[in-house]
Description:
Helix content is 41%, strand content 7%. By secondary structure, the chain is mainly alpha-helical. Among the domains are: 8-93, no CATH class; 97-132, no CATH class. The strands form 2 sheets. Strands 1-2 form a two-stranded antiparallel ribbon. It has a two-stranded antiparallel ribbon with strand order 3-4. β1 and β2 form a beta hairpin.
Amino acid sequence: MGRTPGDLVEDRSAPGTGPVARDAAVPTYKKPSTAQLIIGTLGDTLSQWGGGQGTFLPGLARQKQAAAEAAQYQQRRTDEYTDWERKQQYESAHPKTPADDTFTRALVAGGIDPGSPQAKALYLQRAQTLASPAPNFVSDGAGGGRWVTPPSMGMGMQGAPQAPVGKLTPLGGGGAPSQGARTFPVR
């Protein structure tokens, strides 16, 4: 059963909103009547006899092609939406289990039940390790150095300062600019 541009389809940009009419800007092809075909062909023939080019038949071919491309695009959209909808239905019917992540699989492989208190402690330790920044080695320039752990962005901590810190002085020595100072050359 073929679809026409006036058919109702579900809009993929907003799943679940229900059927909506197809886009009005999508070109459609309406077959011309027999009288229109005769007059258009006659006009093209007369135009060619006069040294010009016909416009009716080439325009008709362009309309057919644009309508076919639009129908193909709409069919692809419908097919993609159907695929997306089936995937969503499958995922909701088959939710991932906690054993689907690598860390949980490693616990199970090690003989630890993912619901046990020991596993919960290991999950907490892993979360804290992932949340804290890695220590950096700061060299003292003479072949030695020390490991420094930067502060984490934990509770109560803030990121970079949002306003200048300390006194700012202009480049070039400081002080107020002289009366004749300009930033652009005068022409």
